[in-house]
Design brief:
mainly alpha, 0% strand
């Protein structure tokens, strides 16, 4: 880890440390917001003591980050257009990172202070969009190309529909439980439980209710780590690639086999395009660029696909270790790989390409990016620790909001189980498709769904605050990051 500071100017090293601290601070605050939701119901229903719950939640968050891969991490990174990702110099990279992180931290702290379970995911994505659009304005790039809009739409849909699905599924699950076991004590409110305890009732849920609550809470911590934790991983990789690109543009620990796999993917990609010459001829200018060298100021252009592949294959010829290559050559290889992947992604959406060929192209893309989409273990470890510590310190405000301030009555055991099981399922499914979702909104909407199904009613003030934060988070974080990025670019870049 510490060798990343070797050879850096003092101001770059200090900036790198500050940027990493900013990311870890964001993840620490994320623990206040989102990770606390993972233990909100299990603490409120007294299925586990608070300190035991948050410690176990931290452990399962760590495992989730450790085992979750990097799919969601790079879904966040690729919100930025490929042109910005391949051409970030140190100055602009610093401004970009500090702008989006400052905006995300400021909004998250404000909403946490008022106990509003706002979404760290919305905040981060809004900040990235603000930076991307502002960069387009400052560099005379069309706004349509300032952000990877296809990726933004995919993420927006997951963020919008996951809470709606959480509301409906949790409500249906509670109705099914009430139909199956209408007289079960798991449908009692806290006040009813306290009144019963004055007699001969139990303080804690029954064994099976408690087991479901505890297992689903730990499951939610795990999937939260594998989803939200990856956002921090993606941010740190943005920091490292933007500030010290020579050491992180490619995975320097790649084996000879992985490098050969990347080279083979480029070769097979060229064969794929030749095999589909008819539908792709005009879009990729196939056969028109043979022998053409890439322009001096390289940018991603589908019509430069053939010379890009040829140049990449030449650059990788005989390479068995990325560490043996000079820094500029590694940067160029990453640019070629990102551009080829970006073009392949666009080709995969063309209507005249058969479904079977689209599936083959997606497999090729995974091999093509195997040595560019990665994260060092120390990055994963740092993010996991930041999430866990944030959970242990700031959980009380969000637990109270989720347990008592969404519905007009307190949460029952049955409601806690339904909301948590629904949230685990929704977030786990999002992980499969590498889509970031909001733990906060999925769980809060699940709790709201159970309150409606239970006819408990909703507290209008809390619901209004949550909805207001939901609606305002994206534009507010966009405006904040855009303003900071614009000012920073004028002063430092």
């Amino acid at each position: 880890m510490f060798d990343l500071f070797s050879g850096l100017d003092a101001w770059v090293a200090i900036s790198l440390v500050l940027a990493l601290l900013f990311v870890l601070t964001f993840e620490f605050i994320n623990g206040f917001h989102d990770t606390a939701n993972a233990v909100a119901t299990v603490i409120y229903t007294k299925a586990m003591p608070p300190h035991m719950a948050v410690v176990l939640s931290g452990c399962f968050n760590f495992l989730g980050v450790l085992l979750g891969g990097v799919g969601v991490a790079y879904a966040i990174v690729h919100l930025l257009p490929v042109e910005l990702l391949i051409n970030v110099d140190t100055g602009r990279g610093l401004v970009m990172v500090f702008a989006l992180l400052s905006a995300a931290i400021a909004w998250n702290l404000g909403t946490w202070y008022f106990g509003i379970p706002a979404s760290s995911s919305h905040t981060l994505i809004g900040s990235i969009l603000g930076v991307g659009l502002t960069n387009a304005l400052l560099t005379d790039i069309p706004l349509g190309e300032g952000v990877n809009w296809q990726k933004a739409v995919d993420i927006a849909l997951s963020l919008v529909f996951s809470p709606l699905a959480g509301f409906a599924v949790a409500a249906l699950m509670l109705l099914a439980l009430r139909w199956w076991m209408p007289r079960s004590k798991m449908h009692e409110t806290p006040s009813e439980r306290r009144a019963r305890r004055e007699g001969r009732g139990k303080k804690r849920p029954r064994f099976w209710n408690r087991l479901v609550l505890v297992v689903s809470a730990m499951g939610m911590s795990f999937v939260h780590g594998s989803n939200d934790g990856q956002k921090g991983i993606g941010l740190i990789m943005l920091v490292l690639i933007g500030i010290v690109p020579t050491k992180f543009v490619l995975d320097l620990n790649s084996t000879t086999y992985q490098i050969e796999r990347t080279r083979d993917a480029a070769l097979y990609l060229n064969q794929f395009y030749q095999r589909n010459h008819a539908p792709l001829r005009d879009y990729l200018a196939l056969g028109k660029n043979n022998g053409t060298e890439l322009p001096k100021h390289f940018r991603c252009d589908p019509q430069l696909t053939e010379p890009t592949i040829a140049t990449l294959l030449g650059a990788l010829e005989g390479v068995t270790d990325y560490k043996a290559m000079d820094a500029e050559r590694r940067i160029q290889i990453r640019r070629y790989l990102l551009c080829l992947d970006d073009t392949a992604k666009k080709v995969g959406r063309l209507e005249n390409l058969p479904a079977r060929e689209q599936a083959d192209l997606n497999k090729l893309r995974k091999d093509l990016t195997a040595t560019t989409e990665y994260a060092p273990f120390w990055v994963i470890l740092a993010v996991a620790l930041a999430l866990g510590l944030g959970t242990m310190i700031g959980w009380k405000r969000v637990v109270l909001t989720v347990g008592e301030k969404i519905g007009r009555q307190g949460m029952t055991y049955a409601q806690g189980m339904c909301a948590q099981v629904t949230a685990v399922s929704a977030i786990g499914l999002a992980n499969v498709f590498s889509l970031p979702v909001s733990t906060t909104h999925v769980l809060s909407s699940g709790v709201a769904g159970t309150m409606v199904a239970n006819r408990s009613g909703l507290q209008s003030d809390t619901v209004r605050h949550i909805l207001t934060a939901w609606v305002l988070t994206l534009p507010a974080s966009m405006a904040l990051s855009a303003s900071i990025f614009w000012l920073g670019t004028l002063l430092f870049a």
